[in-house]
Amino acid sequence: MQKLNIMKRYIFILFAAFTLVTCSDEFLDEEQVGVLKYDYYESEDGIEKLVNSCYSVLRKKYGDEWTYALWNYGTDEWKRGDHAFTTHAMGGYNDYTEMINPVGYEVGYKNYPENIWAAYYNGLDRCNLAVEKIPLVEDGVGIMKDDAGKNMRMGEVRFLRANFLFLLVQQWGPIPYHLTPSSGSEKEWPRQPVSQVYDDIIADLEFAREHCSEEPADYGRVTKNAARHYLAKVLLTRACGTDTDPLFGRGGNRDEDLARAAVMAEECINSGYNALLPDFADVWIEGNEINDEIVFATQFNQEVGLLGGASNDYRNQSHVYWLNQYDTEAGMARNIEYGRPFRRMFITDYACDIHDRLNDSRLRKSLLEVYYATGVPPKVNAPVWTEQELLFAFTDVAPDGSWAIRYGDTIRAGEDKFRMATENPSNPEYVNLGDTALIFLTNDKNTTLTDREIVGRGYTIFARYYWITDPVTREPVELVDHDTTFPEGHLWEGIRIRAWAPGKAPSLLKFRDRNKADVATYQGTRDFFDARLSETYLIGAEAYGRLGNYTKAVELINVVRRRAAYHEGEEKPNLWWLFDGGTESDVTSGRESAIEITESYWDSDVPLEHYTSPSLSKEQRFIEFMLNERCRELLGEMQRWEDLVRTETLYQRAMMFNDDTRASGTMREYHKLRPIPQTHLDAIETNGRALTAGEKQAYQNPGY
Question: What pTM was computed for the model?
Fold first, then answer.
C-alpha cells in the first residue's frame, strides 16, 4: 500500500473566526494556493486536499510540550523530570498547581490546553466542511466517481471528527460545537452536554465502520478496524461514567454499551486485517512502523527537510521528552544514538513495581537502561580507577590500593575503567560505541546490590535501591534510594554512589528516533501509534469483565500476556538473572505459562498488583488490574491521563502513586477536567453581548 504523507505544503483558507489550514500530501500539486473559494471544495481535487488536511490535525498532539503535559503528567505512571519547571517544561501539570488554572496563563505560563483546544476545533471545522461538501462533488473520475467512494471519504472525515470530539470531551467535559461548518460569524457557543457529545461521536464512528475500507489503497487512511477499535473504546468510556448531572453525565446504557464494546473489540480482533506481532519489542523497531499490529497511526514525513522549524508544532517531538541526562556522565557525549535529552519525564515506582520482571518482558523492552561509551578521547575522558575505589570495592587488593583482582584479572590504580568509543572514519558525525559506561538499573527493594558492588563494576550505575555497607565489616546495613557521598573524615571519604533522581532514570525507548541529521534536531519522523491491537484486546477484556464475564476477559487478557512473556529460545538480558530472580543457566526458557492468569486471580489481594486497598471486591480488583495491565502494555503511549479520568480514579491514583503530586498537595477532584481557555470565554457572547464575569464563571468548569 502507498503511504499517505500529509502536510508537505500548506494551503491557507481564512475565515473571520476560524482559520482552516489545509496541508497537501504526496499526490497534490506543488504550488502554494493563497486563498481558495468554497466551491473549490465541490471538486474532487479540492475534496481530496481537504480530507488530507483533516488528517494533518492529528499531528498536533505529538508536537510540543503538551504531548506529555496533558496526557502523562499528574498520573500514577509518570512524574516530572528535572527539566519540569524550566521555560518550556510544565511541571505544574504534574503537580496541579496554579500553573494549570486560567490565572496561571496570565502570569506567563504556557497555555497548553488552549493550543490543543484551538487545534482540535480547527480540525473539527475542517471535517464539518468536508461532510457538507463531499455529496456535492460531480463528475468525479477517481474515488469520487460514485456514492461508494464518496461514502468512503465521508467515513474517514466522520471518524476524524469523532476523534477530535473524543479528545475534547475527555479533556473538557461539556464542550461547545456544531456539526456544520462555521461561518466565522458565530458568537454564541453554548456548551453541549457530555451525553450529546458521546451520541454524536458514536454516530460518526458507526458511519465510518460501515463505509470505510477494510484495507485502503493508501496506508494511513481510516480503516473499518480503526472505526471498530475506537467505537469499542468510546462505548467502554461512556459505560464507565457514574455522574448523573444533566451536563456532565456521559449518558448511554451501561450494560448495552459494554456488550456493544465487547462485540466491536472482537470484530476488530477477528477481522483478519490486524494481528499481534510475535514479540513486544518488534512493535517498536525503527523502520517497522507499518506493521500488522497498528490499527491506526498518526503519520509523519520521513523527509526531515519537510518537518519545519522549531515553531512548527505539527512535527513529531514526542521522542525527546523521555530521555535522561546521560551526556554529563563519565565516558558519555551526546549523540544521535541516545538522543537529545529533554528529560521531562520520570517513571514512578508504581509503574516499575507492578511488573513481574521474571516472566513479563515488557518493562525491560520499554526502557533503555544500558548505555555504551560514546565520548571519543580527548573530548570526553575515560574514568580511571583510584586507590580509594580499589580498597573500597575489592577484598583481593594491595594494602596501598595500587592494584586489585577483578573477575580474575589484575586492575591497577590509574587504569581506564572501560574502553571509550572510537572514531568512525566513514561517518564523522558518529562513533563506534565502546564498553558499557552507564546503567540506569530498574531493580527493586529485594535487591542485594551493595555500594561496594556498584563501585566495583567500573561503569556508572544509577540504581533504584542499593545497600550501604558497614565501613569495616562490609556487611549491608541500610537500604537506600538516594545518592551517597561519604563525607570528610569517613573511612571511605569522597566515594560517591548514585541512585535514581529526576533526569537520572531509565529512558522510554518506544519512541526513540535516530533518523535525524544531527543530535540537535528534535523534529522526529516516526509515525505515532494511536491504536494497537493489543489495546483492542484489553478494551474487549475490560468490557467483558465489567459485565461479570470473567471467562471471556481472561481469554483476551492471556493473549496479550502470552505475547508479553519471554519466549522459548529468547535470550534474556543479564539483568534478568542478576536482579529479576532468574538464573544464569535458564536464560532461554519460555515463560508463557507462568504469566497466564485465571478467573480466580481477582478473588484475593495480589501484592504485585499494588491494589489501592487489600479489602477491595472482586469487581474492584478487576478494574484496578485492568489499569495495571494497560500500564504494563501501553506505558507512555499518551493514554494514561484519560484512562484515569475514564475510570474516575485520577485523584485517588495520582495522590497515591505520584510522589510529586502528593507532595504538592494542590490536586483536587475537579482536576479531572481542564479549564475552558480564557480566550474562548472572552470571545463568545450571549444575547448579543459579551459575557459578564459571573457568566464566564458559570460557563467555566467547576473549581477554576
Answer: 0.93
